[in-house]
């Protein structure tokens, strides 16, 4: 199995050898496509929630799951001290080629002894948590990366709309015992596939409850047009 599907596609585009997009297969029985050029979009081409998040950034910034580095590049051009973090070797190489000055190839949980004013997780970056039960571990680690007064900015989606609605306005959810936003994915690029991996979509109310239980304040900053939202988390210092 090819591990760095995402990074290979990003690096191909950066090197001018782009010929096809990334295919995704999920436990929601949906086949979809990630257009690789979209990962290189400019600020003007970004969704309003992403634009809002970038405008809220302050101080030193860690762009978690930076991918092709479009958010980092925009912030760097605005004069911010930004570090692009990704565990994909191909993505990291592309970020360097695009001129991003600080790029780190690492898993989030392996990053230690550094603190930032803003942690940025866009394009449902919170998905890396995988499952709801992992949120405590995630929040515990995030606390070690935040400077006093720092913030975590993230966007996600409530995917309840993808399930069948009943006559009473409720939804038919699979009786698996798992949270409905826990999805598994496989990616394919140039006939190579990744192993199956977990990915989390979290509705705002669930995020807020989990954040508060870990002593974070959670603010709904903005809502998108299709069940998506932008949230800001800060540590409750009381």
From TrEMBL:
It holds the Pfam family Methyltransf_11. Residues 62-153 form the Methyltransferase type domain. The keyword Transcription does not apply. GO terms for molecular function: methyltransferase activity. This is Class I SAM-dependent methyltransferase. It comes from the Bacteria. Keywords: Methyltransferase, Transferase. GO terms for biological process: methylation. InterPro entries: Methyltransf_11 (IPR013216), SAM-dependent_MTases_sf (IPR029063). The keyword Membrane does not apply.
